[in-house]
Amino acid sequence: MQFTVAIDGPAAAGKGTIARGVADAFGFVHLDTGLLYRAVGRRTLEGTPATIAASTLRIRDLSRTDLRTPDVAEAASKAAAMPEVREALLSFQRDFASRDGGAVLDGRDIGTVICPNADVKLFVTASPEIRAHRRWLELTQAGLDITEAQVLENVLGRDTRDRDRADAPLKPAEDAIQFDTSEVNIEEALAKATGIVRRRLDQKA
């Protein structure tokens, strides 16, 4: 059975945590598509042109332990704004989404571009301040020396680039179910997401 869940939203809204939880709940495979762009961004920081980094990306590149730093996030956001990079990664993502057994993909343009016919489309968001605080806690717990104000500046910059890029801008699909995680905990958000997926699975059965 093919069943695709597309989860989109801005940085640190909780979409990755929700995507992993949904995948675990239903035995689906999960792809954090942001890691594709982070892996490309890391390679650009090492001197590889973005288009070459994207066209030669391999699964092992996604397992690097240095993909969650602020400089990589910035490089990833810039690479993601390049149509040539997005085109190079399109087949990778669609092949993953079409595998049997169910797949969950989270990113910025899954429901609008990568999987416009996904069985379930969610758009997860939260206020910039809440998202910056979450990301700051994550980074400082990982040992990085960075202020919350710096993280907020990075979040706002990424939001602007993601929304304003000409190719596949960040926006909800017309048929996406939207919810804001600013005032709810992850358990509540995950319960809502799994409920939506379960109802769609029952309809498809």
The CATH superfamily appears as P-loop containing nucleotide triphosphate hydrolases
Return the string of H and E elements: EHEHHHHEHEHHEH
Strand percentage lies at: 5-15%
Which residues form runs of ≥5 with pLDDT under 50? none
What is the highest CATH level, the class? Alpha Beta
Overall spatial form = globular
> Strands of the biggest beta sheet: in what spatial order?
2-3-1-4-5
CATH architecture: 3-Layer(aba) Sandwich
Number of helices: 9
Number of strands: 5
- The helical percent reads 40-55%
Average residue pLDDT: 93
End-to-end C-alpha gap: 10 Å
Task: Domain count, please report it.
Answer: 1
Q: What is the radius of gyration?
A: 16 Å
From the helix content, strand content and strand pairing, which structural class follows?
Answer: alpha/beta
**Could you give a short account of the major beta sheet?**
5 strands, parallel
CATH level 3 topology: Rossmann fold
List key phrases describing it:
5-stranded parallel β-sheet; alpha/beta; 205 residues; 9 helices; Rossmann fold; globular
